[in-house]
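Could you show me some protein's one-letter sequence and the numbers that encode its backbone in two labelled lines?

___
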Amino acid sequence: MTTEQIAARSGASKATIYKWWPNKYAVAVEAFLSEMFAESADPDTGSAREDFRIALRGLLHFYASPTGRVFAQLVGEAQLDPLVRAELRDHLVQSRRQLGRVMWERGVARGELRPDVDPDVAIDLIFGPGLYRLVTGHAPLDAAAADAIVDAAVSGLARCAGCD
């Protein structure tokens, strides 16, 4: 992907693109983030397990799409290029993690999830397997996989009634 290709496809000039984004990776990250939020927004169902299940289903649906395969290539490139890594981490990963924290905090506040668990670790346990499956291709990226991942993770993260 080049800035010229982005300009040609979008109908905008290169100057316009550089006015709004510092580089081609920023354009790609913003596009991926927009699509991820469309596929996996904050469901706020009143149940942490259901919120995580719906969010992970949407994310795996995105990963399984043609755009998700392009996203996997960007993740691969980020391993070698600090600029790409910074764009992904600072603009896409952090905003997605913030959504996970919001869902986690609601679950803790409702007494569904363990308050003693580091939210960042919990988010890794819930959403990390999807990215692992995307980059390794070892297992499906479907709704059944999302449900199984969330069920396994939340079973270990759920607050035990009567354990206090």
User: Anything to note?
Assistant: The chain has one domain: 24-157.
